[in-house]
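thought: fold this chain, then report.
action: predict
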Amino acid sequence: MAGAARDTAAGPGGLKAELSLFDSITIVAGSMIGSAIFIVSADIARHVGSPAALLAVWIAAGVMTIAGALAYGELAAMMPQAGGQYVYLREAYGGMPAFLFGWTLLLVIQTGTIAAVAVACARFGAVLWPALGGPMWLGWESVGLDAERTGAITVIAFLTFVNLRGLDMGRAVQNFFTSAKVLSLAFIILLGCIVAPNHAAVEINFVNGFFGPGQWSMGFVGAFGAAMVGSLFAADAWASVTFTAAEIRNPRRDLPRALALGTGLVILLYVLTNVAYLCQLPAVAAPAAPPAGGALGQRLFALGIAGAPRDRVAAAAMQMVWGNAGGVITAVLVMLSGFGCANGLILTGARVLYAMAHDGVFFPSAGRLNRARVPAAALVIQAVWAAVLTLSGTYSELLDYVIFAQLLFYVITVGAVFVMRARRPDAPRPYRAWGYPWLPTGYIVAAVALMADLLVVKPRYTWGGLLIVLSGVPVYWYLHRRALRAAESARAAAGGGDWT
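observation:
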């Protein structure tokens, strides 16, 4: 393990430690903000049915996210190595839990999200370039190639090429697009809440029907938990910055700060963006649309957030202000957001494969750096599998399956704070988890309760997600035993040399 730690650290000939605090914050925020914030509020509103509950879902997901990030900060400052969360799981629990995390990350968490975000870029790009739409060229049922998927693969290939050129290129793209999409959400908030609020929607959502009908029952509690799947997915990927720990100039100081500041900024933007949606559209279908706004505005107002066409809530909100031009504006915003999100995921995910290769449980080539001192083979492997998922057409369903698994890994990683405090009480801890032990405990309790709720409400997805994780067990045993045999052969050869 110590050898792996040295191999995956920055240094001469190794990964380049060039990321600043600002770069780290943009990785956190940029990886979190994708296309989900523009879409998932529709499904949340259908589950919970009131403005207050819609905002409560986002706030609850935000509190959980920030609590988890504050706990991760202690582990990040304590073990600033490439691979981040993979390393924390390895040091706290051993090789198998760490491998299962890396396996699931490669199989669907990182690559599936890259595929989904790239497709969203191409899909919204069809608003500007209709050629990206159209029927499938080659394929069978949902599997195949069309213009939209070609556009998505082009996005993945281009961003992988950018990151193959070195960390400077990758972080420059990340900084630009993260700044652009933070400003985009700020634009939606300013326009929707202050410049041009829809007074009819404000009255319905905030004056007459904020809490909705009496609904606080056990059934509603279950629906609330199911609704949090969307908000947690929108707020996911915040831990990706830990994968690049060895490339941060001062990781012991900057990683905890980046986790706290990045997640805090994004959650604030998410909550305010949903307030902006509520200032334009009723949370649920309105009994009668106001006479103003034209035919399009009246139809969108009558449908509400819960009935937004194709769940494009942001587009519906912008169309309430600018008509059809609002759809074009939203398409540009989603493309900017998706491009930056995909770049952050591509940049960070390859570092986990790099760390796994140094532990002998992944292809050795993934553990080597190119002339730009980035893990080239790991970047290419990640891109190829993301492209395959794009062609398969199943990435969105796989993402539904993985929410439960992702929560599971978050829980056991936050639990690693307690394990490492007991196992290594004297280890240097430049940052100690804020609110320990109560805040990490609260996160674990809330996440376990949500997982139990999902087992009941969405059993198909939760059990499916668990099976994806467990599929890595036989793979780990095979790779681990192969690594042990290779180590024994090396020792035998060295011992034989001593006797001759």
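thought: worth noting. The longest helix spans residues 324-358.
final: tokens above.
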